[in-house]
Amino acid sequence: MAEEQAVAAATEAELSDRIADLVEYLVLSIVDDADAVSLEVIDGDNASVIEITVSEPDVAKVIGRHGRTIKAIRTLARALAARLGTSVEVEVLG
Known about the structure:
The protein is of the alpha+beta class. The protein has one domain (about 1-94): GMP Synthetase, Chain A, domain 3 (2-Layer Sandwich), CATH 3.30.300.20. Helices cover about 55% and strands about 20% of the residues. It contains three helices and three strands; from the N terminus they run αββααβ. It has helices spanning about 1-30, 55-65, 70-85, and strands at about 40-45, 50-55, 90-94. It has a three-stranded mixed sheet with strand order 1-2-3. A hairpin with a 4-residue loop joins strand 1 (about 40-45) and strand 2 (about 50-55). The protein is globular and about 35 Å long. The mean pLDDT is about 90.
């Protein structure tokens, strides 16, 4: 039983890393200062949270007008998560 939970936890971490790779690719193609971009994946019981940290001038680019860009990133991340059988939330930190 504990072995199955360990395998499930490892699989969940691998899935959230695949989703984080997509989010990182999208964010890096938007920002000017790619060196300031960092992602932190927090695996929870029900969902994973991907926290994106970018430089202060790039926050507006990642969020976009009326939040359209971050909404599109979240939509793509959730679509991939659904396809992989998990769930994810994406947050932007300045």
